[in-house]
Structure formats: C-alpha cells, structure tokens
Amino acid sequence: MTTGSEPRHAAHESVEERLSEVIGSAEEKLAEEIIAEQDLHEVMQPAKGDDEEEPLPSMSEQISEQLGGVRGLIESSVPVLAFVMLNVLLGDAVLGLEKRDALLWAIIGSVSSALAIGGVRLVRRQPIRHAVNGLFGIALGAWLAWRTGDAKNFYLPGILLTFGQAALLLVSVAFRKPLIGYAWGIMANKGRQDWFANSELFRTFQWLTVLWAASLSLRAGIQAYLYWLGEANALGIVRILVSWPIYAATFAFTAWAIHRVTSAQRRDTTVA
Question: Which residue has the higher pLDDT, 19 or 215?
Fold first, then answer.
C-alpha cells in the first residue's frame, strides 16, 4: 500500500460511516414520529407488567363479596330468624295461638323484615342485590306456607333450589365445563376464561366443582330430613346455624386451593 492511498481510503470510510449515521438517525426520527402520531407506544413496546396476572383476591375479600360481608350474612338471616321466633313465641309453645294465626304473624314478620332491610339499603343507596334475592325466596316460601297451612313449607323453596344448584354443578363437571372455573374467571381473572388451556387449573376446578355439589347436597340433605320429620322450627335453626358455616368453609377452602395452584405456577414461571 502506498503512502498516498491511505488518506483516500480513510476519507472514503469516514464518508460512508457518516452517511450511515445520518441515514440511521433519520430513520429513527421518522419511526418515532410515526409512533407518536399513531399512538403505538403501548402496542409496540408494552409495559413489562401489562400481561402479568393479577394475584387472586384474598380469601376474606372473596368470601365477603359472595356473602355480602358480615352485614349481608346478618341481613339474610334476619327474616328466617323472625319467622322462627314468631312461630315459636306465638304458637303452642308460648302464647298458644291457633297454628294458622301464629303462621300468619310469622309470615308477616319475616316478609316485613325483608322489606325493611331492602328499604334501608335503597334509601342509603347501597347495593340491594342480596336483599332482593332474599326477599324473593322469603315471599315464595311464605306463600307456600300460608297456602298449605304448614310452617315447614316456608323452607321448601330453599331446599329445592339448593338441590338444583348441586345437580347443575355435577352436570357441568360431566360435560367438562366446571362452573367453579367460570366463577373464578369472572371474580379473579378479569372475566377471562383462559384456564381451559391450563391442565392443572382445569383439574382443580373439576374436583372443586364436585366439592361444591357435595357441600350443597349436605346442606340441603340435612334440611330435607328435618322437613320430612315436620320439624319446622328446627329447619330454621339449621338454616341459620349450619348452612352458612358450611358455605363459608367451602368457599374459603376453594379460594385457598386455587391460590395454591396459581401461586405455584407463578413461581415456576419466574424461576424459568
């Protein structure tokens, strides 16, 4: 290589590098302008946490939501408690009113308390979903009890409804569409039902749905036995003191089981 050729080669490389830098800078500037105009930042460069799953709500939050909180639990029990207390106090056990008269006052007290609870919630602009559901069941039970003249029929709609729910859950398992999975998708997965693709979650929802069917059948079975015996007052006591604890325990175990699976999968993903 001659001495005179080195400056020309160096100069040639310098021009090419400079031209490449200018073109690259221009392309980057143009790309940034297009992204800014089309608002493509989130699509092209998603934030790191956008696709991350949110943690499952705590067991207490989920139970509170489903039962309407402690207040909702109390409010749902008040009409039943009113029916039992009035039927006992006004019936043969205490005041000795005629059976149908005691039943009438028990129905009036139960329906009135349900209406009062709904009215208070409405005035305070609070959610009335639980109150409305409770009022419908109370009204139907009251109608059946009055029509038949037997206090035990006050509880019949609830017993049949619970058995129906258990049967529906079992059918969903048989068709491999476990309803507990759908409920979890709505409550804790932003409405997404992508758990079908997760074999471990799918199996968990299958046996949890069976568990719920068994829990509901137990609750309804105890009440059905007392109904068959004609123990109307015992039916009310069982409904208040037994049904809700079984429901709450099943719900707590369900939340724990799902959280255990999702947490383990999240840890495995992080490690990988």
Answer: 215
Tokens representing residue 181 in the block: 């999975």
Question: Would you say residue 121 lies in a domain?
Answer: yes
pLDDT at 73 > cutoff 50: yes
Tell me if residue 87 falls in helix, strand or coil.
helix
User: Cα separation of 189 and 177, whole Å?
Assistant: 17
Residue showing tokens 């408690």: 81
Of 150, 170, 200, the last residue of a domain is: 150
Which H helix or E strand runs over 148? Answer: helix 129-148
Please name which of 134, 158, 130, 138 lies closest in space to residue 72, comparing C-alpha atoms.
Answer: 130
Is the predicted pLDDT of residue 108 greater than 80, yes or no?
A: yes
Nearest to 167, CA basis, from 212, 203, 223, 219: 212
Domain region containing 81: 55-150
How many alpha carbons fall within 13 Å on the CB side of residue 167? 8
Please give the model's pTM, rounded to 2 decimal places: 0.68
Q: End-to-end distance of the chain based on CA atoms, in angstroms?
A: 55
Buried b (16+ CB within 10 A) or exposed e, 221-254: ebbbebbeeebbbbbbebbbeebeeebeebbeeb
Residue among 159, 139, 144, 140 nearest 227 (CA): 159
Q: Check whether residue 146 and residue 159 sit in a common domain.
A: no
Closest CA to 222 of 211, 234, 213: 234
> With contact defined as beta carbons under 8 Å apart, do 63 and 251 qualify?
yes
Same domain assignment for residues 161 and 235: yes
- Quick check: 215 and 26 in contact, CB under 8 A? no
